[in-house]
Structure formats: C-alpha cells, structure tokens
Design a protein that fits this description.
The protein is α+β, with helices and mostly antiparallel strands and 262 residues long. The protein is built from seven helices and ten strands. It starts with a helix and ends in a 9-residue tail after the last strand. It binds a DNA duplex (14 and 14 nucleotides) through helix 6. This is Formamidopyrimidine-DNA glycosylase.
Length: 262
Amino acid sequence: MPELPESDAARRRIADHCLHRTIAGFDLGEVTHVQLPSEAERERLVGTQFSQTRRHGKYIFAGTSDGPWLHIHLGMSGSLRVYDEGETPPDYARLIVIFEGTRRLAFRDPRKFGRVKLIEDVDAFIAAKGLGPDAMKMGDNAFAQAIGSTKTAVKSALLDQSKMAGVGNLWSDEALYRCGIMPDTRGTDLDGKAVAHLHRAVQDIMGHVMAKNADYSQLPADWLIHHRKDGADCPRCGGTITKKKVGGRTAYHCPDHQTHAG
DNA sequence: TGATATGTTTTACT
DNA sequence: CAGTAAAACATATC
C-alpha cells in the first residue's frame, strides 16, 4: 500500500530492525522483470552494513556508512517485511537481504511494478527524477504555488510528483473529501483559504497514517478510506460515495458535500 | 469472464 | 512550455 505514509512505515522497518547488521548475501526470487540490483551491485553490499535511512516522497533509501545507497520504490503493490530465519518467508519475495545471524529483509512485490537499485547519491537521484519537495515538509507558500496556480484538476496536481512528492491516489481522495473539494476543481478556482485548508488536510492525514504505522484499521471510522466503494454511504453527510475518472485515476468522492467551491 | 487496481514512464496530441 | 490522454509495465483480486 505504497504512498508516502506506507513508504515511511516500510523505511522504519529497516531503521528499527536492520541497521548495523553485516550483510551476508542475498536471495533472489524467481527470475522476473522486476528491476533489482545486479550481481556486481549485490557483491558491493556484501560485508557492509546499513547505517541510516532516508525517504523522499514514496522513495525509500537505505545507506551504507560510507558507500552506496540501496534505493527501493514499492510501486503499486510492493512491501517490505522483516523476519528471522526459521519463520516462513513471505509470498512474492523478489529480493531477500540476508544479514549475518538470522535477520532477513524481504522486498515483496506481487505486481512487479516496484524497483530496487543501487545509487551513489540520494540528493542527486531526487534531482534527476525531478521530484518536488516532500509533501510532509512542504511550506505554505510552496504548497500554494504548486496547487493554487495551476489550471489542472486539483487532484491531478496533488498526484504530480514533480509538484510535491508523496501524495498518491488514496490520500489525495481522503484530503479532498475532508476539505469538501470536488477532485476535478481547477487549482486556480480555489481561494487561498481552501488551498491552506487542503495543505493542512494533506499533512494531517498522512501524518496520522504514519503515526498509526499505516495500519488502516486504526484510522477513524469516518475517513473515506473505509468507505471507498461506489454507492457506499457517506459517513459525514449521508450522501452517496461516487467514483469518477479525474486525470486518468479513479477519484472516490461524495458529490453532496464536495463542491467546486471547496 | 471481465473490470479494476495504492505508481511511474513514455509517447502523442492539443 | 502547460496540460491532457492513453498506453505500457505484470499480476492479483473482486
């Protein structure tokens, strides 16, 4: 479930359970189209340890103390799982990092849209990707500039990783739902107050999901995430949850309390 | 069986 | 350049 909060929960698993352990080797899943580190790149990591982690938007990085970084993107369906030798390895494991002792880190990816690769410099990588600022660290002015000054649908702007990094389909819907903004409202049609409200909603929602370690069952019952189905009752106003395409993505929303005025 | 899916990238067109 | 749209990637699930 990989947007910014889910990616951060995955990063934290590395930070909490996999640092300062010597890498002994790797296990590869079946040969697939998933982009994984080459044998030479894996060899570079053997004998080293991860000593730090970073995240920018949906991109996760695990750094060796004085060498390359392992970069992980979870794609559409990827996840990370930490376990110990002797436990059942997870399904769809494409790459398993074997640490000395029993600790293991598995990169799972059922739909194979994720990527793992070795990079030398995180900031250079972010710049080369053209990623905007991390959505959780973005200031008011930068957010207002990115969202309020574009004619694009506000939902599409939120999803544009070059405007800001980390917001995906689920949490963009959640933020617009909370703010009462119709997903296809043009950015330029929102007033300053609505843009500021949306900024708070994006950061509050994703911050909350991170605080709950991306466990959706711990999120409030009236959040859209629990009612994301065409025809469901809107828990906030009694309307009917409806879906429509906005910018090529499915936008779940409540047409009764989400309007073009915000 | 067919529709749909949490993401990114590329290509084409306006 | 800004924006839109669609397709492709490979597979699972409803």
